[in-house]
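Take a record.
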Amino acid sequence: MKTLLSACLCSLAVALTSLAQSPPPASPRTSPAGPPPAAPPPAVSPGAVANPAAPAQLPTTNLPPGAPAAPASPGAATSPAAPGATISATLSPAPAAAQSPSPTAEEKASGGVLGSNWLIDKFRKGGPIMWPILIVSIVGLTVVIERIFWWGGRWFRRDPKRIEKVFTAIESGDVAEASRLSRGSRDPVLRMMWNGLNHQHTSLQGALQVAAGIEIKRAGRFLVVMDTLVTLAPLLGLLGTITGLIRSFSFLGNEELAVQAVTGGIAEALIATACGLGIAIFALVPFNFFTSRVSNLEFELQTAATNLEVMLGAQAREMEIAGATHASGKGASI
């Protein structure tokens, strides 16, 4: 059992470590060393569309000497470099700045919702009361896992058919066969019956009570711990709420840091309360389930012990009656 508890603690530590060190999601932002984003297509102004009915304008160098230069139309380009100038004029730095916004200070500090240090960041924001809450959560999870394995193994150890065979042998008067069938079994009911059959000549009822008490104690192990955790976790969360509010109100006199300090204290109070309630809710359902299992096992042990006492008592009375009848018949014959 100690090995199982150690394995549970190690697996829980590995799970928490892997969750806290999970890789951050891929950022959609482009790094400075990466290739520049593709330039958008140049915007074409309505005035730059060429008129298909008008003749194409020739460069001014092709005009004959002495001819006056024709005035440039508003929609025509006056030089070959005009299209390039139009493209460069349409490109503004505003879209590029909008495509790659700078990360905020909170995202840099926390790493995002799924960042590598999100769990550690929330743990630190919960305040110093998070350390006892963490210990309580580890102990509660370990106890729940251990009890699940124990009751699962007990489910496979049950042998109701052999119990019926033992009662049949006792009813037929073969106590030795009943003891042989119940010997070496891992079923708690059969172990109790074997203990009672071996001590029936000294104190049958006492032997059954001792064996039943041992089995009930094994089944109810760590239930006191779970009951304590269910009560302790919300109290720790409430204590974290009080300390967080005290921290918030202590900074109200300072106007410069009042807003940040108050919000930090409220966040500490809420995180501690949520963790305490979550642990209590998590441990309450298994605690009630295991308590009901212990009650069912106690009822089964009491029923089997009562049946065994009744059957052995009836068998003893039959033997006494048979002995008295044999003795009276022998005396009459004499």
In short: The first helix runs from residue 2 to 20.
